[in-house]
Sequence to fold (113 residues):
Amino acid sequence: MLVEDADTARSLGTGTVPVLATPRLIALCEEATVAALAGHLPSDQTHVGGRVQFDHLAPVRPGSEVIAEVVLQRVEGRRLIFTVSASDAAGLVGAGRLTRVVVDSEQFLARAR
Fold:
């Protein structure tokens, strides 16, 4: 991802500095889990976020490229546990663990408020 002004804490309202916002960095990592799982579930199933454990380790300015990497560490029933990391040219920007939960799409939407 190329960090843009719209990705900053100032733009997202999560801070006052023009650097990559933590929620946007986590979203990038979640996008990577979605890409990693593409085509691996039956068409009536999907996966949703279940838990985020994440450390934002370094500030990143607009114009920088950030790359997210994910590894499926284990499967616990419907829970898919990923380790995630994000880096820029200078090194590690953030790291942690994301848990996704496999759900039946129709049943899940029926429960949505």
